[in-house]
């Protein structure tokens, strides 16, 4: 785990577009308890943003604006519960020692 933590710190330092935040156990129940999701945003305006849900045997792509809005709100809720990027960096650094 220490090597993985060091890798996260390195990514954060070398890729300015990457934000790492840790959601601590103390956050309790949260919006992602029913599974992971990815929100994919595309730079071309003709390509709509989508939500991707990966499952054991398949994947699901959600394109409906209402579903996208729901998952965007979930993501914001998670970010609000998580440690700040600096607090996360400090915790990860401690774990990598």
List the helices and strands and how they pair.
Layout (H helix, E strand, L loop, with lengths): L1 H13 L23 E3 L9 E5 L4 E4 L2 H17 L3 H12 L1
Antiparallel strand pairs: 1-2, 2-3
Helix pairs in contact: 1-3
Question: Can you describe this structure?
Answer:
This protein has 97 residues and is an alpha+beta fold. 43% of the residues lie in helices and 12% in strands. It contains three helices and three strands; from the N terminus they run H-E-E-E-H-H. It has helices at 2-14, 65-81, 85-96, and strands at 38-40, 50-54, 59-62. Strands 1-2-3 form a three-stranded antiparallel β-sheet, with helices on one face. A hairpin with a 4-residue loop joins strand 2 and strand 3. Helix 1 (2-14) runs antiparallel to helix 3. The model has no long low-confidence stretch (mean pLDDT 91).
């Amino acid at each position: 785990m220490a090597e993985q933590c060091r890798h996260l710190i390195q990514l954060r330092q070398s890729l300015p577009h990457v934000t790492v935040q840790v959601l601590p156990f103390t956050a309790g129940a949260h919006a992602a308890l029913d599974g992971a999701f990815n929100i994919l945003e595309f730079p071309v305006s003709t390509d709509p943003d989508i939500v991707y849900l990966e499952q054991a045997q398949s994947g699901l792509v959600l394109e409906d604006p209402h579903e996208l809005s729901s998952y965007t709100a979930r993501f914001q809720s998670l970010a609000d519960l998580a440690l700040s990027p600096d607090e996360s960096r400090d915790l990860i650094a401690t774990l990598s020692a």
